[in-house]
Amino acid sequence: MDFELSSEQRMLGEQIRKLMDRLATPDYVRRLDREAAYPYELYKAWIDMGLLRMPFPEAHGGLGGSVLDMAIIAEELARKSFDFFTAYGASVFCGLNILRNGTPEQCERYLPKLLAGELRMCVSMSEPDAGSDTGAMRSTARRDGARWLINGQKLWSTGAGAHDTLINVYVKTDISAHYREGMSLFLVDNDAPGVELRKLDMLAGAASGPMKSSSTTWRSGTIGWWVGSTADSTACSRACRSNASPRPPATAARRRRRSTSPSTMPRPASNSDARSERSRRLPTCWPICRPRSMPAGS
């Protein structure tokens, strides 16, 4: 593969650098850090420059950019502060998730607004008892007629407090499945009834603002939307695995170890169960996709 940048790509990097030097001055970055503010001015400039359109296909209003184009954007935004790329990357990641796993109607509904800057997106996955071990999450969603009721609590919902943000929340929809399975993805407006956002104090994190510091509690009554057809049993698997790192194929020995490992057994109840029961009256939402199964080795 040729990693040499084209003249157009070098020009892209130069334009972004000039933009960031003009807007993201040291005083601006310090103010965001001091006030824990979201970089709304920068985000609008990225929209005007068409940066959010870069990885999306032209058929959906994008620019059909390459991985190298995205690497250039990431490098130039993060040069001033990694939090700036976090604000950009969350919307891009979630938008591509809808593109790959949503229905044509859902793509038509959300992508134009996302690329026009009319809405932002963020990921809500980590919990008090579930970080890198995503399968340990305890937040749940259950069907209630035509709706889904979500119950639980999330931490580190980067960007959840920004204006016009659609939260992409991952929850368990099949609690009888192995703890690495039965997870689904939902979309919920951050200002919907039943959603409670709480600012968490951070030791560090420039320009984090309402980004890296949100504790989100979901209570009954919130209405959201799902991405993907309810008839597509693999959609959620694709959605949830889109950010997972590749795993080597399991060997026979590894399969035998897993079959007898305590990790394959149902997890015992913990002290957090009582806390979870008190806090998990989550919103009514539409699922992004059907219950999914992660690879046994993930």
Task: Describe what is shown at a glance.
This protein is of the alpha+beta class and 298 residues long.
Contiguous runs where pLDDT drops below 50 for at least 5 residues? 205-213, 220-224, 231-298
Indicate the percent of residues in helices.
Answer: 25-40%
CATH topology of the largest domain: Butyryl-CoA Dehydrogenase, subunit A, domain 2
CATH architecture classification name of the largest domain: Beta Barrel
Provide the gyration radius in Å.
20 Å
Question: What proportion of the residues form beta strands (DSSP E)?
Answer: 15-25%
| Average of the residue pLDDT scores | 75
Which geometry do the CA atoms define?
globular
Give an overview in words.
There is one protein chain. By secondary structure, the protein is of the alpha+beta class. The protein folds into two domains: 8-119, Orthogonal Bundle (Butyryl-Coa Dehydrogenase, subunit A, domain 1), CATH 1.10.540; 122-240 and 274-293, Butyryl-CoA Dehydrogenase, subunit A, domain 2 (Beta Barrel). Helix content is 36%, strand content 17%. It is built from nine helices and ten strands. It has helices at 7-23, 26-35, 40-49, 67-80, 82-101, 104-115, 235-241, 252-260, 272-279; strands at residues 120-124, 140-144, 147-155, 165-172, 181-189, 195-199, 214-218, 224-225, 284-285, 292-293. The strands form two sheets. Strands 1, 4, 5, 8 and 10 form a five-stranded mixed β-sheet that branches. Helix 1 packs parallel to helix 4 (67-80), helix 4 (67-80) runs antiparallel to helix 5 and helix 5 runs antiparallel to helix 7. The protein starts with 6 loop residues before the first helix and ends in a 5-residue tail after the last strand. Mean pLDDT is 75; it is low at 205-213, 220-224 and 231-298.
